[in-house]
Every structure is written in C-alpha cells, then in structure tokens.
Design goal:
Elements lengths: L3 E10 L3 H9 L4 H8 L2 E11 L4 E6 L5 H8 L7 E6 L2 E2 L5 H10 L1 E4 L11 H5 L1 H5 L4 H14 L15 H14 L4 E5 L7 H18 L2 E6 L2 H7 L2 E6 L2 E6 L1 H6 L4 H7 L4 H4 L2 H4 L1 E2 L12 E4 L4 H11 L3 E4 L5 E5 L1 H9 L2
Parallel strand pairs: 3-8, 3-9, 6-7, 7-8, 12-13
Antiparallel strand pairs: 1-2, 1-4, 4-5, 9-10, 11-14, 13-14
Helix pairs in contact: 7-8
The structure holds adenosine-5'-diphosphate and magnesium ion.
Length: 341
C-alpha cells in the first residue's frame, strides 16, 4: 500500500463545478472550459502514488495546479471528483473531529511565506503544533528546543520572527513542522522566497534531516534544479494535468512532451546522472571496444569522468565498490546521449 494515493482527482473552480464535469471528462482543456463556462480547471484527472519515506516533488509553471493538488492532501480543498487515500483511508470519510486529529498528527505544512506568528517567539512558534496537540508545557519546550537545534537556530529561541532573516524564519517554519512528529510533511514552494545561496543551504538541510527522519515529503516547486536535488520522484503538472511522473533521471533522459522538454532543456545532464544509469550490462555490451578501458565507479556522476574519456577517447568499465565489473559505457554513445534534446 502506498502512503498516499490520488485517484482520478478533478478540481473545478466556479459556481457549478459538477455541471462542467462531463465536458472536462470528454477532454475539453482548461482554456476551452474557461471560455465556454467561466469555470477554472484546477486539476484534470490526476492520479499518482506517493510511497512512504520518499520525497515526492510536484513541479510545474505558476497556475498549473501544484498548490491545489497539495491542499487536497489535508483537505484544505475537497475534490470535485476522485479520491484521496492516505494510509488506506479516504480523507473524504473523516468527520470534523477526525479531520482535526488528522491535521494535527498526520501532516504538517511548511509555507512559502513562512506563516509564523509575529507576536510569538521562535520557541513558541515551533511549539505551536504541540500546544494544539494538548501537550504539557515542559514537553513542548523540550521538543521545540530539540527541533530548534536540528535546524541550527540555538540561541535564537527567544527572538521574534521580525528579528530574523528570511532564511532563519524558514528554518523556524521547518522546525515547527518537524516538532509535531507527523510522518507526512507538505512543503508548498517552501524555499522559493529565499535568496539562491540560502535556498541551497535549506535544500542541503532538508536532505540531511530527511536522510535520518525518512518522512514522506510532498514538496512543491517551479524550479527544476530544486526538483532534481530533492526528489526521489517528480510529478510534472501542466494546466491541471499530470503530464509525467518519474525519477529525476527519467525526466531528464525521456521528457514526455514539449512542456517537460522546455523545463529540462538547459539542465546539465552530466551533473545529475550516474554511471550505473547509462551503462550497458556486461551481457549487453559486445559492441563496445574493450581495449584501453577507463575504470569508473558505478555511483560516480558522469561529470566526474567525462573529461577523462573525452580526452583519451576511451570507453568505460563500470565497477562497484568491491571492484566487480557491472557494465560498460561507450564513449561515443555517452556523448550523443548528453547532447540529445
Ligand atoms: N480558490 C480558487 N478559485 C478559483 N480559481 C482558483 C482557486 N485556486 C486556484 N485557482 C486556479 O486554479 C489553477 C491552479 O492554481 P494553483 O493550484 O494555485 O497553481 P500553482 O500552485 O501551480 O501556481 C489556476 O488557474 C488558479 O487560477
Ligand atoms: Mg502555488
């Protein structure tokens, strides 16, 4: 069972969403629906699965439906049609009390504009979710301090948000989301308002935390580099439709359509693809000349050995940590695949 399953979800905004469903199901696109009915298609037949412990990145241009999608997960938005299953339970089946429980314990959210309480200190902000869970003050403060330390903000616990930089405020937002110990974390453009260097720091911090915590993270961004760095899987939305789901390598090597191609066209493939991804297996590589092979590790990024093989005009032998041969890479094929668009 997947941690989260989204099955054929449609979301139409407007006065009478049900009335336009037949038209949408028959294939009318977002533009046509708006023009003919004045309704906006937020999501159009989106289905996807998110596995426990993975970071699933949802990417797309502004207005493509990313926020609409993530808000279905904690029922800030109800679908016009389709179902959202979290840990085997349809979120539409919750009554009011169950929904409150679900939001307090199951999911936490980190927002683009930090969403901190200006009149509360850092430690009070971080402890807020625990306060809502009805925990005792002593426990709240203990847990809040742990999370403050985890995001590197010790010493700032009694400051107010307006005394902190943007990057630090977002660390508070992250610490607050971590404090409730929910196993699903929703992050909607959480780093998009930060300067590039600070943003890169935050990505690193999230990766470090995630390597220990193994939460299920749904991360939204319109930035390809961020998607590639953070995502185990990436789903790409265009005008409410999910046009591709795949690993970073799938997305880069086999973009599903022109929209995805436009996203990946400037990416440096050599920087994000490892030797093992592009090698040919030992049984499948008779056509590769094995004289003067250059040895590379299966987990090396292409970038690290590309200059060497280009200069020497040699093919590669790919080995694992113990030196066992796992496959071969043809110099010529490698260079063609890197320039493929
Ligand atoms: N409450 C709403 N009422 C009407 N239209 C909305 C509402 N929320 C979102 N939309 C529309 O749905 C589409 C998807 O929006 P959104 O999910 O916010 O996109 P993204 O987060 O990818 O920028 C957009 O066309 C937007 O205008
Ligand atoms: Mg959005």
């Amino acid at each position: 069972m997947s941690k989260i399953e989204i099955n054929n979800v449609y979301k139409i905004f407007g006065n009478n969403p049900q009335s336009v469903m037949p038209m949408v199901k028959e294939g009318a696109n977002k533009e046509e629906v708006l023009e003919q009915t004045g309704h906006t298609v937020g999501l159009d037949n989106v289905s996807l699965k998110i596995e426990e412990g993975e970071t699933f990145v949802c990417m797309g241009l502004s207005g493509s439906g990313k926020s609409t999608l993530i808000r279905h997960l904690n029922r800030l938005i109800d679908p016009t049609d389709g179902e959202i299953i979290v840990e085997g339970t349809n979120v539409m089946s919750f009554n009011k009390e169950q929904l409150i429980e679900f939001r307090r314990h199951k999911m936490s959210m980190v927002f683009q504009r930090f969403g901190l309480f200006p009149h509360k200190t850092v430690i009070q902000n971080v402890g807020y979710g625990l306060e809502m869970q009805g925990k005792a003050l002593e426990e709240i403060n203990k847990t809040a301090m742990e999370k403050i330390e985890a995001v590197g903000l010790n010493g700032f616990e009694n400051q107010f948000p307006n005394q902190l930089s943007g990057g630090m405020q977002q660390r508070v937002g992250l610490a607050r989301a971590l404090a409730t110990d929910s196993d699903i974390m929703l992050m909607d453009e959480a780093f998009s308002a930060l300067d590039p260097l600070i943003r890169s720091d935050m990505q690193k911090q999230l990766l470090d935390l995630q390597s220990e915590l193994k939460k299920t993270i749904v991360f939204i961004t319109h930035d390809l580099d961020e998607s590639l760095r953070l995502g185990d899987h990436i789903g790409i939305l265009n005008a409410g439709k999910l046009v591709q789901v795949g690993t970073p390598v799938d997305i880069i090597m086999n973009p599903a359509d022109d929209y995805v191609k436009a996203f990946v066209k400037d990416v440096n493939r050599a920087k994000v693809i490892k030797a093992k991804i592009i090698m040919k297996g030992t049984n499948d590589s008779d056509d590769i000349d094995k004289t003067n092979l250059i040895k590379v590790n299966e987990d090396q990024f292409i970038e690290e050995f590309l200059p060497l093989i280009v200069c020497s005009n040699s093919n590669c032998e790919v080995v694992d940590k113990s030196g066992n041969v796992k496959g071969y890479i043809s110099n010529k094929e490698l260079q063609t695949s890197l320039t493929k668009s």
